[in-house]
């Protein structure tokens, strides 16, 4: 079966051998394999029972990035919003000669009463995962199905599995301005990004549609954005890693988050409006 449901997760299998797994909790993609090699990082300490956001994979940030700030309506929501900690439904699946597709849905009737009170808007999210022999595409459609405008942030918060943080280079952001959340300062990217300490940066309005995450002489990933303008780069390094109960102290060596989305500014969505954005990951 190209798409099969295994209790709490959906498994996509491509005739080439490529595969992907998506938990219904958060519609979090936790695995993407090509040539039997895992490309996505999932912490060995990740909690997978739905009691906490999954540490790793591609958690979906919506409708707020980080903690909302009063007086904005997102101020009381949990960090990164409710999409990654709500139970989604598998709404569709299909396959043809090239692509295996699964679609997941979440709307306002499916989130907890508590979150509904915090964020009282009628919305529908459709998240589509398309697997081919050598790519995976993750696409989010946000619809305002109510009669009040709302605004939102969103991110495809992708944790990549890497051989060693010291070998990683992120290419394609040179010349871009960023906000450094560690130093609480603004700066301009000069050349490639290397990880030598905690990195937590927001690059707004990135020009190049493609960026590369290179693993020294061990290949890497090309990330292509469609319809989303910002990139967040995160590696927690030593202290932050030690402070996270669901992340191993040494796991920062084996992951980097490169997160495509809209976070520098909220996107305003009028009643009846819709928005879509996606990323396509391919192995280099
Ligand atoms: O611990 P979480 O809520 O999953 O957030 C994990 C990380 O997400 C993003 O990358 C933010 O830029 C970081 O500041 C944050 O630490």
From TrEMBL:
Catalytic reactions of this protein: alpha-D-glucose 6-phosphate = beta-D-glucose 6-phosphate
Pfam family, one: Aldose_epim
One MF annotation (Gene Ontology) recorded for this entry: carbohydrate binding
GO cellular component terms listed in the entry, alphabetical order: cytoplasm
One record GO biological process: carbohydrate metabolic process
EC number assigned by the record: 5.1.3.15
InterPro entries documented for this protein: Aldose_1/G6P_1-epimerase, G6P_1-epimerase, Gal_mutarotase_sf_dom, GH-type_carb-bd
Enzyme superclass (EC): isomerase
Residues given in the record as substrate binding sites: 55, 79, 84
Coiled-coil intervals: none
Keywords, sorted A to Z: Isomerase
Superkingdom assignment: Eukaryota
List of catalytic residues: 157, 259
Protein function: Catalyzes the interconversion between the alpha and beta anomers from at least three hexose 6-phosphate sugars (Glc6P, Gal6P, and Man6P).
Family, similarity comment: Belongs to the glucose-6-phosphate 1-epimerase family.
Protein name from the UniProt record: Glucose-6-phosphate 1-epimerase
Species of provenance: Entomortierella chlamydospora
């Amino acid at each position: 079966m190209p798409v099969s449901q295994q209790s709490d997760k959906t498994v996509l299998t491509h005739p080439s051998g490529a595969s992907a797994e998506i938990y219904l909790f958060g519609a979090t993609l936790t695995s993407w394999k090509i040539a039997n090699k895992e490309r996505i990082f999932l912490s060995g300490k990740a909690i997978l029972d739905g009691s906490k956001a999954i540490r790793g994979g591609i958690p979906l940030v919506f409708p707020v990035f980080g903690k909302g700030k009063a007086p904005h309506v997102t101020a009381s929501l949990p960090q990164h919003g409710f999409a990654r900690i709500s139970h989604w439904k598998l709404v569709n699946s299909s396959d043809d000669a090239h692509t295996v597709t699964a679609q997941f849905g979440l709307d306002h009737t499916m989130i907890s009463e508590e979150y509904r009170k915090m964020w009282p808007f009628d919305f529908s999210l459709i998240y589509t995962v398309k697997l081919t022999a050598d790519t995976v595409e993750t696409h989010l459609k946000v619809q305002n199905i109510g009669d009040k405008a709302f605004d939102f942030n969103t991110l495809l918060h992708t944790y990549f599995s890497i051989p060693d943080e010291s070998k990683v280079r992120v290419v394609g952001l040179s010349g871009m301005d960023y906000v450094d959340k560690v130093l609480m300062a603004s700066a301009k990217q000069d050349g490639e990004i290397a990880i030598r300490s905690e990195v937590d940066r927001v690059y707004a309005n990135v020009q190049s549609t493609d960026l590369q995450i290179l693993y020294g002489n061990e290949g890497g990933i090309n990330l292509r954005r469609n319809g989303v303008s910002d990139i967040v780069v995160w590696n927690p390094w030593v202290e932050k890693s030690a402070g996270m109960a669901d992340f191993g102290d040494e796991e920062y060596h084996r992951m980097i988050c490169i997160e495509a989305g809209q976070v520098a500014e909220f996107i305003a969505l009028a009643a009846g409006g819709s928005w879509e954005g996606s990323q396509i990951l391919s192995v280099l």
